[in-house]
Specification:
Rossmann fold, 2 domains, 12 strands, Ubiquitin-like (UB roll), 246 residues, nine-stranded mixed sheet
């Protein structure tokens, strides 16, 4: 009988403790609810309302119970958010600062790279068709962005601009310029061959350069040019003579 009484007392204490704990939690929620969620940042691609809707179910708790890590993870899942900071502000607020991604180039059909070569995939890339395109093996994003920027600088010196930079699984390159010219490079010595081609452009002259449709730089000691169908005939003897004089 004494054992039964003791057991009943222990059980009653546990139930009461649980009850008071639940009541205390409810009391905290009533006395210290989260009343304000302040979101700061420059919103060019992400609507602030989207973040607010995302956070509504996550801030339905008291000041001490709201989970900062869960909120941070939720904000970081948004495709345009690069970094975010989340902190409590006594007695009833949460401050969130977000920093958006900055698109530098397109990567493949659906993704973008920021200036550091970091990959992110927004809901749509349709409005970024004006950006240069890189297609290449996964994991080489930063490296290929660096190479593309170097190619663009070299081309810009000759008033030419890169539109697409493609690297296949065999590491062969294909460059497409904004004027439609295609430049093909093999697996080895790509930059050396590309520089040699650019030097030749100075000898050809602007009119002949504008007549180029495709350049194949995959030859060890030279390259092949395909001319546009409407290109005028070229006097190669004149070109060679100019090259010897230079």
């Amino acid at each position: 009988m004494q054992k039964l009484v003791v057991l009943l007392l222990v059980f009653t204490t546990i139930v009461a403790g649980t009850h008071f704990k639940a009541q205390g939690k409810q009391l905290l929620s009533e006395l210290l609810p989260i009343r304000y969620v302040r979101i700061e940042g420059v919103f060019q691609y992400t609507k602030k309302e989207r973040i607010q809707d995302l956070l509504k179910p996550l801030v339905m708790a008291d000041y001490f119970s709201v989970d900062m890590q869960v909120i941070h993870q939720a904000v970081m899942q948004l495709p345009w958010i690069k970094t975010a900071s989340v902190k409590r502000v006594w007695p009833d607020a949460i401050d969130i600062k977000v920093y958006e991604q900055v698109p530098a180039v397109r990567w493949g059909e659906k993704s973008l790279l920021n200036p550091s070569g970091e990959l992110f995939t927004p809901d749509s890339v349709e409005e970024f068709k004006y950006l240069p395109l890189i297609i290449g093996p996964k994991g080489y994003e930063a490296r290929l962005l660096d190479i593309m920027q170097g190619l663009e600088l070299a081309l810009a010196d000759r008033d030419m601009h890169l539109a697409e930079f493609k690297v296949n699984e065999r590491r062969s390159w294909e460059i497409v310029l904004k004027n439609g010219v295609i430049i093909k490079l093999g697996r080895n010595g790509q930059l050396k061959n590309f520089q040699r081609f650019l030097k030749t452009l100075d000898l050809l002259g602007r009119e002949k350069v504008e007549a180029i449709a495709e350049v194949d730089l995959r030859y060890p000691n030279g390259y092949a040019i395909t001319w546009r169908a409407d290109a005028p005939a070229i006097d190669w003897k004149q070109v060679m003579a100019a090259q010897k004089q230079s």
